[in-house]
Amino acid sequence: MRHLKISLLSAAVLLAFTACGSTPEQPTRADLSAPTPMNAHIVNALEGAPEWVVSDCKIYLGKIGRKEMLCAAGAVGGSRNIALMKQNSAQRARVELANMMQSRIKGMMRDYQRSVTGGENFGTAADDEQLVESTSKSIVDTTLSGTESIASWASPTGELWTLVVLDTDSFLKALSNMKQLDARIVEHVKANAEESFAKLDEETSAQ
To answer: Which CATH number does the domain housing residue 164 bear?
Structure first.
């Protein structure tokens, strides 16, 4: 019995030394680069996405024969209510569109104010910039009513994307119906809108 215990002890010690002396298996490059559950979500989020989601929506519109002046895409997730997701994603696209438009309309308004206040005198009165801000916001809020949702796409990870567009005719029609604005302001914006928004398209595409 004693010899049996000694033999078992020796075997255990030998096994321990063998385990300590062995080289641990190293992870392969494939193991290291394999996406974790967290980044797998990011990697797969836009798999199979249409061009207007992953690229410039203006390019997509040109390919399908649409000539809208401005476009933007918005996304929302985390809900099983498809109708609500479509509504919210379209609203996010409109917010993006509004931000782009407002910067341009402010520029047009400042040009107009300089022309009527003598150029270098623009900004000397506090109400100059206030007029620019309030008028540009009013124009954006009103003309956004002419936007149209033309496409939607659901990602593999549950986000719903919506493409919203605003064409030149809808913008100018809404602007012409803004009776509360000075007619000279309306005409100035109408005269410069197409060129100004075209430049915005070019700047957005170059980013």
So the answer is: 3.10.129
Asked if residue 94 lies in contact with residue 144, where contact means CB atoms within 8 angstroms, the answer is yes
What pLDDT, on the 0 to 100 scale, is given for residue 2?
47
Round to whole Å and give the CA distance between 186 and 191.
8
User: Residue 140, Cα to own-chain centre: how many angstroms?
Assistant: 18
Q: Is the pLDDT of residue 193 over 90?
A: no
Map residue 70 onto helix, strand or coil. strand
Range list of H helices, 50-81: 51-54, 57-63
> Which residue segment(s) compose the domain that 60 sits in?
48-206
Residue with tokens 């300590």: 20
Q: What is the CA radius of gyration of the chain?
A: 31
Unique residue bearing structure tokens 């005198």: 121
Q: What residues are paired with 166 via a beta bridge?
A: 70
Q: What is the pLDDT of residues 59-99, one digit of tens each?
A: 899 999 988 889 999 999 988 899 999 999 999 999 999 99
- CA atoms lying within 13 Å on the CB side of residue 104: 25
Q: How many domains does the chain have?
A: 1
**Is residue 122 assigned to a domain?**
yes
Choice between 144 and 45, residue whose per-residue pLDDT is larger = 144
- Pairing between strand 160-166 and 70-76? antiparallel
The one-character DSSP state at 144 is: G
pTM of the model as a whole: 0.70
Nearest to 160 by CA among 207, 91, 99, 101: 91
Of 198 and 141, the one with more pLDDT: 141
